[in-house]
């Protein structure tokens, strides 16, 4: 598995139809909201984060990934009762990181996607925990086992989701 | 400079975005706790997002609901007629049950009013559908399809038929944000039903609900019910919350406990909830109307029952019966008991007669009106005109002392008192009529004054006229003219005879007649007591079988 980008094709930016950029985050938010209503364990997943990571790695543009991550995070914050900005900060940072890594790392391979998503998920939850627990002084429990399991499940789901989103890519 | 921005463009953009969001976060977090509402900009963002996300959810929900309605309302109608008949029967039964419990409910309300108990009744509620969640397990937020257009306001309590669910947080025109009790930032005042321990219900890790800061109490057991305490001014008192799942020590506060709660309402599968939109100190007009109807039905049912009973049972009052001439009758003309029965007036009042002794407040503890010499009361001599109300007429020693016990020897002659005291002392010192030596004579001389309530007790009275050494007490001095000496040796056997007995006590007017001295002590065998508790008449025939083995029952007049 090549971790570094070795060909021009691998470092090219991927482009998608415009509605995909709008529809995918909204669909992720809607599904997350609706499915969790009937399956409580679905709340372990973070579909908006997967979308942010995917577009960041596909577009390989840190600025748009940062702004996109912030926007999706704010939307997600708006659905919760916590102050606006918690998920926004976390997802903006993850978007920036994913886009920056996407320039240097081959993100087409499933293994790379699996590992990266696992790490991004852990980092995202860590940032979230720091902000909520230490900045907002609200009760939030950190359980390593739970977080690792959650990150692993999200990574597995992300690999499938990324493969589906690859089909929406504009072929050159 | 230009190269700096172009070189670090990405990092600068990230920094800018992060700083802006941190500022927004700081503005929101700095808000005072009293002003719980979000700033306008944040509310606007929430409103837009919720509208965007909730609208398709609502459409999806309505679409599914319409399909469900078509299926269950027009297609899947098997056994509907049979179910309808069964449900009608159930309604009839429930009507009867309602009629029977409505009176109890009324009584409870009256008592609560009497006690000034302010109960918040739920008299207005609004059903709502849950259409979505926040989507993250860190936030116990769900969305319902009713909003401010339907009259909802923030902090309204929400519940299901099983128990409380949460309270409204943000209310939008057509949607509301419902904060579940499993949210870490929620708080509900609760109380344990069994131990009455109060606490705060909060959300914990992994959507579990816990009661925090509970004092250590061994009585808290799994399965104990938890209800709302009403202390949070949001939820009415007494609403079911859940049951105790387990008790764990609080990691942050060592001696305190956390009670993990199993919620009554299924928070993971919420579909329909009830928003309580109105509470008050009194029931609503509609509920009053329902109660009145139920009460009328209950009264009608009771009347029917009483009619049936009156047909089956004989009348309580017989009109042809003679009038009741009993002055102590405690029933009125309708046959109802109106006052408790009074005991009949005693023929010969004794120390146990109500009202014969002064109240305890009029007495001085340890007070003696008679001087004591060498441990013996120095009783004064009584004048010769002493009057004996009743004289002993029995032949046995016990009978003699018994009569002496019940004798009100007002100003009894000294000699008679001495005789009685001797007899009493003899009886108490081992020559009991039953032939069994008394194991313990009265060791303590007691006051012989009638005013002393101690003297009315059998033991004390018996030793009142005799010292512990058996010396006659009354011979040492003379009794006062009005002094009454109660000598009671054996209370139950020396009761005043009942009028039905053939025993005729000597006339109380024979004041000059001295009390006859007891003759030879005789054995006093077991006494046959009739069922009515009275002493057997003197003419009661002896039983042949018992004539040899045991002495015949001896009446007072024998």
Topology:
The complex is a heterodimer of chains A (172) and B (558).
Chain A: H1 8-11, H2 18-38, H3 47-59, H4 62-79, H5 86-104, H6 110-135, H7 144-166
Chain B: H1 2-7, H2 9-29, H3 40-75, H4 80-114, E1 121-133, E2 141-144, E3 157-159, E4 164-171, E5 176-180, E6 188-192, E7 198-203, E8 209-214, E9 225-228, E10 240-249, E11 257-263, E12 272-280, H5 285-312, E13 372-373, E14 376-377, E15 387-388, H6 397-406, E16 409-410, H7 414-428, H8 458-464
Antiparallel strand pairs in B: 1-2, 1-12, 2-5, 3-4, 3-12, 4-5, 6-7, 6-9, 7-8, 8-11, 9-10, 10-11, 13-14, 15-16
Helix pairs in contact in B: 4-5, 6-7
Could you walk me through the main structural features you see in this protein, from its secondary elements to its overall organization?
Chain A: Keywords: Cell membrane, Cell shape, Membrane, Transmembrane, Transmembrane helix. Chain A: Pfam families: MreD. The complex is a heterodimer of chains A (172) and B (558). Chain A is mainly α and 172 residues long. In chain A, 72% of the residues lie in helices and 0% in strands. In chain A, helix 5 packs antiparallel against helix 6. The longest helix of chain A has 26 residues. The model of chain A has no long low-confidence stretch (mean pLDDT 86). Chain B is of the alpha+beta class and 558 residues long. In chain B, the strands form four sheets. Chain B has a six-stranded antiparallel β-barrel. A six-stranded antiparallel barrel of chain B has the order 6-7-8-11-10-9. Chain B has a two-stranded antiparallel sheet with strand order 13-14. In chain B, helix 4 crosses helix 5 and helix 6 crosses helix 7. Classes of the chains: A mainly alpha (172), B alpha+beta (558). At the A-B interface, helix 2, helix 4, helix 5 and helix 6 of A face helix 2, helix 3, strand 1 and strand 2 of B.
């Amino acid at each position: 598995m090549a971790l570094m980008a070795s060909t021009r094709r691998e470092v090219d930016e991927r482009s998608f139809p415009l509605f995909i950029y709008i529809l995918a985050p909204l669909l992720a938010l809607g599904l997350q909201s609706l499915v969790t209503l009937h399956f409580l364990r679905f709340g372990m997943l973070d579909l908006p984060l997967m979308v942010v990571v995917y577009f960041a790695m596909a577009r390989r543009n840190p600025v748009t990934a940062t702004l996109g991550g912030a926007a999706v995070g704010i939307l997600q914050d708006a659905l919760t009762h916590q102050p606006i900005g918690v998920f926004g900060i976390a997802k903006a940072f993850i978007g920036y990181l994913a886009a920056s890594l996407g320039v240097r790392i081959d993100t087409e391979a499933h293994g790379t996607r699996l590992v990266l998503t696992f790490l991004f998920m852990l980092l995202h939850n860590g940032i979230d925990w720091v902000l909520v627990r230490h900045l907002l002084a609200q009760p939030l429990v950190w359980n390593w086992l739970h977080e690792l399991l959650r990150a692993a499940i999200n990574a597995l789901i992300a690999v499938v989701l990324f493969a589906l989103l690859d089909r929406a890519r504009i072929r050159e | 400079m230009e190269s700096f921005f172009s070189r670090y463009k990405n990092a600068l953009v990230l920094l800018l975005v992060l700083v802006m969001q941190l500022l927004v976060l700081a503005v929101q977090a700095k808000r005072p706790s009293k002003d719980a509402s979000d700033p306008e900009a944040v509310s606007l963002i929430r409103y837009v997002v919720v509208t965007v996300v909730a609208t398709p959810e609502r459409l999806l929900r309505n679409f599914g609901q319409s399909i469900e309605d078509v299926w269950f309302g027009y297609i899947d109608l098997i056994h509907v007629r049979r179910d309808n008949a069964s449900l009608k029967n159930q309604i009839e039964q429930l009507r009867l049950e309602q009629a029977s419990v409505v009176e109890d409910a009324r009584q409870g309300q009256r008592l609560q009013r009497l006690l000034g108990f302010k109960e918040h009744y739920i008299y207005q509620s609004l059903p709502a559908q849950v259409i979505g969640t926040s989507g993250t397990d860190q936030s116990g937020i769900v969305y319902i399809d009713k909003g401010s257009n339907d009259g909802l306001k923030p902090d309204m309590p929400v519940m299901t038929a099983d128990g409380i669910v949460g309270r409204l947080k943000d209310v939008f025109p057509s949607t509301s944000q419902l904060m579940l009790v499993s949210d870490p930032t929620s708080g509900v005042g609760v109380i344990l039903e069994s131990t009455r321990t109060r606490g705060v219900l909060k959300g914990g890790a992994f959507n579990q609900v816990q009661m925090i800061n509970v004092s250590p109490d061994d009585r808290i057991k799994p399965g104990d019910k938890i209800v709302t305490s009403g202390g949070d001014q949001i939820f009415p008192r007494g609403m079911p919350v859940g049951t105790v799942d387990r008790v764990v020590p609080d990691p942050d506060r060592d001696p305190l406990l956390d009670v993990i709660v199993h919620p009554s309402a299924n928070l993971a599968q919420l579909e329909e909830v009830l928003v309580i939109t109105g509470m008050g100190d009194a029931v609503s007009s509609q509920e009053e109307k329902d109660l009145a109807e139920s009460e009328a039905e209950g009264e009608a049912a009771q009347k029917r029952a009483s009619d049936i009973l009156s047909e089956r049972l004989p009348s309580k009052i017989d009109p042809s019966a003679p009038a009741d001439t009993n002055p102590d009758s405690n029933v009125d003309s309708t046959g109802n008991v109106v006052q408790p029965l009074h005991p009949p007036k005693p023929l010969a009042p004794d120390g146990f007669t109500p009202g014969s002794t002064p109240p305890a407040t009029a007495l001085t503890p340890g007070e003696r009106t008679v001087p004591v010499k060498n441990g013996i009361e120095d009783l004064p001599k009584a004048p010769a005109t002493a009057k004996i109300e009743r004289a002993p007429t029995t032949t046995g020693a016990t009978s003699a002392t018994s009569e002496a016990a019940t004798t009100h020897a007002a100003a009894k002659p000294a000699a008679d008192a001495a005789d009685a005291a001797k007899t009493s002392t003899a009886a108490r010192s081992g020559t009991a009529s039953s032939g069994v030596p008394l194991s313990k004579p009265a060791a303590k001389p007691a006051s012989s004054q009638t005013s002393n309530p101690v003297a009315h007790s059998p033991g004390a009275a018996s030793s009142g006229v005799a010292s512990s050494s058996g010396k006659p007490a009354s011979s040492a001095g003379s009794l006062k003219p009005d002094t009454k000496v109660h000598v009671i040796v054996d209370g139950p056997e020396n009761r005043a005879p009942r009028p039905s007995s053939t025993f005729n006590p000597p006339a109380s007017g024979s004041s000059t007649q001295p009390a006859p001295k007891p003759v030879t002590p005789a054995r006093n065998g077991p006494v046959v007591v009739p069922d009515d508790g009275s002493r057997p008449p003197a003419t009661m025939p002896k039983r042949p079988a018992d004539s040899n083995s045991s002495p015949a029952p001896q009446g007072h007049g024998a």
